[in-house]
Each structure stands twice: as structure tokens, then as C-alpha cells.
Design brief:
By secondary structure, the chain is α/β, with parallel strands linked by helices. It contains twelve helices and 22 strands. The termini are far apart. The N terminus is likely disordered. The structure holds flavin-adenine dinucleotide (FAD) and nicotinamide-adenine-dinucleotide (NAD). Flavin-adenine dinucleotide (FAD) binds next to helix 1, strand 3, helix 2, helix 3 and strand 4. This is FAD-dependent oxidoreductase. InterPro entries: FAD/NAD-bd_sf (IPR036188), FAD/NAD-binding_dom (IPR023753), FAD/NAD-linked_Rdtase_dimer_sf (IPR016156), Pyr_nuc-diS_OxRdtase (IPR001100), Pyr_nucl-diS_OxRdtase_dimer (IPR004099), Pyr_OxRdtase_I_AS (IPR012999).
Length: about 475
């Protein structure tokens, strides 16, 4: 019997079975795009998502978009605004935006005749066969179901790594999701970990009015960056009022009547109103019973894939955070392109084709990077030319001054022999946009001289290229 969505149902006394061409487990960026593409090709598709709060995935609901909405609200707060009231209103603005995006994402798949949205948690019971434990409260199909498919995509994302320390499960200790709705607003916030989440929340909460202490395990933040670049970022954060404590990590969290005390190795302690554990995210594979599907995972729990994102089981692919590698939305999206090509294209696109992958950490101003650092390029034996400029000194770049934020630096690392760009670090307003231009130049083999002599709009942050790339020295 075919249901309204065109998928075949086999009813047994025990559990009804849905047979589809394509099963996507988890509403991540890559998976949802793949589901829509497959339906456009006339395939029947089942999308299983464990929470209606997550239609659209991490990025839309708890990751990139809501945090960047909060980053923006924090950056336009005036000094006189009461932090508690201002934060409460900012969270309401965030919530309204996210509710809309969640609904749009649900409709984007659910409105398609060939797609069945299933509300529940999927668990493999055999090769390309899952059982779904239903979850109520959503708008999709919520019933105990088996789903059998020809092609399966695992797109279950990642979950926070919470250190196994006494008190880490206390009421004032948060992950990046719960801190977005923290009540009351924390006057003092301690953040453990200085990856993208730790840095972004430190910058954001400092601007909302918290006294932020950033606890860094190593000797400095951004340990993989050149020392001049990492030092410039640390200086701006420190000058904005964030306390950065290096070479330290917590040993326990003691919850009291009105505060939490963070005990640190070395014997010192820190009192705070809230703690953020920003200690990394690991692939969400624990409950998938992947062994039943013949899908291998590595020591970190990531699904093992080849260069075209095939798992160790025929017909089963993995995309995004769950397969290890860079945890970024645009990587999940590019994973979709690789799998689409493997399933229904020329089959030539590969993960290893990627060149010049940019990224931005959304502190204020944003810190954007692409390609190699100076240290990496010289370690590889290249002769390099570099340029390093303070944004405030770049005369051909009035844009940051018009926005009243001329903080930051620009660094370029260029091949002294070919004039091609090895890498760039842009730490200034608009850098999240300019870095994409530099990445494209790297991919297309555009030289540093061509970027230097480019015609760019005025006043824009891109204009910095005219001046800074004129300062390259060996
Ligand atoms: C606070 C924060 C800020 C971030 N900011 C940025 C940023 O600015 N830019 C950027 O590029 N990246 C950012 N990231 C990273 C980015 O959000 C992720 O890399 C990206 O969303 C991963 O997408 P994905 O396709 O792997 O899956 P996800 O979007 O994580 O989706 C996985 C889905 O699977 C569901 N699921 C899990 N298990 C099951 C199961 N068994 N059955 C059914 N459903 C299941 C989950 O509920 C979830 O909806 C941020 C992350 C966080 C946490
Ligand atoms: N703008 C963006 O692109 C963006 C923003 C947010 C998150 N993300 C993605 O989300 C993922 C998770 O971010 P994250 O910042 O949580 O992870 P991360 O792995 O980048 O950083 C975690 C940090 O916590 C430290 N740490 C771990 N355990 C610790 C402990 N017990 N004590 C002290 N320090 C400890 C680590 O040394 C590390 O510096 C990242 O991979 C990132 O790509 C991206």
C-alpha cells in the first residue's frame, strides 16, 4: 500500500515498516539538502529527527544562527542598558528568529510529496534498516516504525563533551545550548575552553555586561596560530575587559546558595554566577547501534568514511560533524555535494578536492582565517613573504573607522617564488566576508599582486588588500 507521500508501507502485527529510497538520520545541513535533492529527483525520502526543536539542525536552532543573533545584539548594547533586561530582550529576539527558521525548515521538507518527516530517534537494527523510537510534540509522523532504505545518510551531528568532574552537572554549569537561555543573567561568567565556542561566548557575554574569566588549558589562546596573530586577538579580548587565565583547568565545581565555586588545578579557586563548559563536541554516534549496520567508527566515535563519504557499509554515507573532521556548517553542506555526486552524478567530487577552506570565529571584531600560518609554511620549507598590519594604521581602509571599531590586525603569508597566497588572518570588522574573497583567490590561483591591484568598492574592508599587500616583505 502506498501512503499519501508515495512511500511503501508494510504493516506487521508488531511494528509498521516504511520502505523508502533514501533515509536520512538527523536534520543536519548536509542531510536536509540531500533529502530535498533526492525528492526533486523523484525518490521517496524519510527524514528522521529526534527533536522538533531541532528541525533544521544544530546550526539553525542552537549553533551558528542563534549565537550570531546574540553576538549582534550584544555588540549594539549601549553602556547604560541594564544587562539583565537587555539580555532578556535579546534572547526573546533570538527566540522569535529561531522559531521562524525552525518552521521554515520543517516546511521545506514536509511540504514535499515524496518526503516523510518522522519524529523520533533512529537506531539501526540491520543493514540499511532502523527502528524509530517515536517522540511526541512535533509536527511529523510520530509512531513506532521500522524504516528500510536503499540509501542511508547518517547526519546526526555532534554533542558537547562535558568533562567528568565533580559538580559538572550542577545547575549553574552550562553547555553552549543552555547558556543561551541562562537565568538570571550572570554578572560573573567563567568559561572553560578557548575554542570557537569559548571565545565567541566570552566576547558576547562581556558585551552583554558580564565579568568574563576565560580558563585556558594551554599557554595561550589560538595555539595553532602564529604568536603575533594570537597575541593580537588576546590583547583585544583583554583590553575589552575579559580576564584570560592560561595554563589552568578546573578540578571541580561547587554549587552554593548564590554562586558556583570553580576549583582550579594548582589550588586556586574562582567564584562565578554561571560556568560555560566549552570543551569541544564529539560525534553523536553513541545510540545509533552502528554495529548492527556494519558501520565502523574510530576511537573518537566518528563514523569512518572514505574520500567520497562512503561508510564501511554499502549504501550508507555519513555527512557533517558525525564523520569527524572540521565541525562547520559549510563543511556539512559540501559533504552533501560529495555524496550527491557519488550517488547520482559523475562520482568525481571528493573531500580531498577542498582547497582554501575559510573559517571565522565571531568575536568582536571577527577573526577569520584561511590557509597556512607563517609557521606552517616555513615548517614545510617554503620561502615566504609576509605582511602584518594594524587595522588602525591601514589608511586605505576607512570602513572600520566609520564603524567606530578600528581594532585588529591583518596578516598575509605569500609564496615568495610564485606570489600565490599561502594563507591570511583577518581580524577586523567585515572579515567574515573578506576572507571568502581571499579563499576564492587561493582556489583560483590569483596572485597577491593581482589582489593588491584589484578594484574594490569604497569604503569597504576589502580595500585593505590594496595597501597591506603592497607591504609584503621576505
Ligand atoms: C554554539 C555553536 C555555534 C556554532 N557556530 C558556528 C558558526 O558560526 N559557523 C559554522 O560554520 N559552524 C558553527 N557551529 C558548528 C555547526 O553548527 C555544526 O558544524 C553543524 O551544524 C553540523 O551540522 P551537521 O550536518 O553535522 O548536523 P547537525 O546540524 O548537528 O544535525 C544533526 C541532527 O541529528 C539529530 N539526531 C542526532 N541523533 C539522532 C538520532 N539517533 N535519530 C534522529 N535524529 C538524531 C539531532 O537532533 C540534530 O538535529 C557552531 C556550533 C555550535 C554548537
Ligand atoms: N564560528 C564557528 O565556525 C564556530 C563557532 C562555534 C563552534 N564551532 C565548532 O564547534 C566545535 C566545538 O567548539 P568548541 O569551542 O567547544 O571546541 P574546540 O574543540 O574547538 O575547543 C575546546 C577547547 O577546550 C579545551 N578543553 C577541553 N577540555 C578541557 C578541560 N577539561 N579543561 C580546560 N580546557 C579544556 C581544549 O583544549 C580546547 O581549546 C568546533 O569544532 C567548532 O568548529 C564553530
Amino acid at each position: 500500500m502506498a501512503d499519501a507521500q508515495g512511500s511503501e508501507f508494510r504493516s506487521s502485527v508488531s511494528t509498521p515498516t516504511l520502505e523508502v529510497d533514501v533515509l536520512v538520520i538527523g536534520w543536519g545541513k548536509g542531510g536536509k539538502t540531500f533529502a530535498a535533492a533526492m525528492a526533486s529527483q523523484g525518490k521517496t525520502v524519510a527524514m528522521v529527527e529526534q527533536s522538533s526543536d531541532m528541525y533544521g539542525g544544530t546550526c539553525i536552532n542552537i549553533g551558528c544562527v542563534p549565537t550570531k543573533a546574540l553576538v549582534h545584539e550584544a555588540s549594539v548594547r549601549r553602556r547604560g542598558d541594564d544587562p539583565h533586561t537587555y539580555f532578556t530582550e535579546a534572547v526573546e529576539t533570538r527566540d522569535q528568529l529561531i522559531a521562524k527558521l525552525n518552521a521554515v525548515n520543517f516546511a521545506m521538507l514536509n511540504d514535499r510529496d515524496l518526503v516523510t518527516v518522522v519524529d523520533g530517534r533512529a537506531r539501526f537494527v540491520a543493514e540499511r534498516e532502523v527502528e524509530v523510537e517515536p517522540r511526541g510534540g512535533g509536527s511529523g509522523r510520530a509512531e513506532h516504525l521500522r524504516i528500510v532504505a536503499e540509501t542511508v545518510v547518517i547526519n546526526t551531528g555532534a554533542v558537547p563533551v562535558m568533562p567528568d568532574l565533580p559538580g559538572a552537572d550542577g545547575p549553574r554549569v552550562h553547555d553552549s545550548t543552555s547558556l543561551q537561555h541562562v537565568r538570571p543573567f550572570p554578572k560573573r561568567l567563567a568559561i572553560v575552553g578557548a575554542g570557537p565556542i569559548g571565545l565567541e561566548f566570552a566576547s558576547m557575554f562581556q558585551q552583554f555586561g558580564s565579568q568574563v574569566t576565560l580558563l585556558v588549558r594551554g599557554e595561550r589562546i589560538l595555539p595553532r596560530e602564529d604568536a603575533d596573530v594570537a597575541g593580537a586577538v588576546a590583547s583585544v579580548l583583554t583590553e575589552s575587559g575579559i580576564e584570560i587565565r592560561t595554563n589552568t583547568e578546573p578540578t571541580s565545581f561547587e554549587d552554593g546558595d548564590s554562586e558556583v565555586v570553580v576549583r582550579l588545578d594548582g589550588g586556586s579557586a574562582l567564584a562565578a554566577d554561571a560556568v560555560l563548559l566549552a570543551t569541544g563536541r564529539r560525534p553523536a554516534t553513541d545510540d545509533l547501534n552502528l554495529a548492527a549496520a556494519g558501520v565502523d567508527i574510530d576511537a573518537r566515535g566518528a563514523v569512518v568514511v572514505d574520500d567520497q563519504l562512503r561508510t564501511t557499509a554499502a549504501g550508507v554515507y555519513a555527512m557533517g560533524d558525525v564523520r569527524g573532521g572540521l565541525q562547520q556548517t559549510f563543511i556539512s553542506l559540501d559533504d552533501y555535494r560529495v555524496v550527491l555526486d557519488a550517488v547520482s552524478g559523475s562520482g568525481e567530487r571528493r573531500v580531498s578536492d577542498r582547497v582554501g577552506v575559510p573559517s571565522t570565529v565571531f568575536i568582536t571584531p571577527p577573526f577569520s582565517s584561511v590557509g597556512m600560518t607563517e609557521g606552517e609554511a616555513t615548517e614545510q620549507g617554503h620561502r615566504v613573504k609576509t605582511a602584518f598590519a594594524q587595522v588602525v594604521d591601514v589608511k586605505a581602509m576607512p570602513r572600520p573607522k566609520t564603524l567606530r571599531d578600528a581594532r585588529g590586525i591583518i596578516k598575509f603569508v605569500v609564496d615568495a617564488e610564485t606570489d600565490k597566497v599561502f594563507g591570511a588572518r583577518l581580524f577586523h570588522v567585515d572579515s567574515q566576508e573578506v576572507i571568502n574573497l581571499v579563499a576564492l583567490a587561493m582556489r583560483a590561483g590569483v596572485t597577491a599582486s593581482e589582489l593588491r591591484d584589484g578594484i574594490w568598492t569604497h569604503p569597504s574592508s576589502t580595500e585593505a588588500l590594496n595597501e597591506v599587500l603592497g607591504q609584503l616583505r621576505e
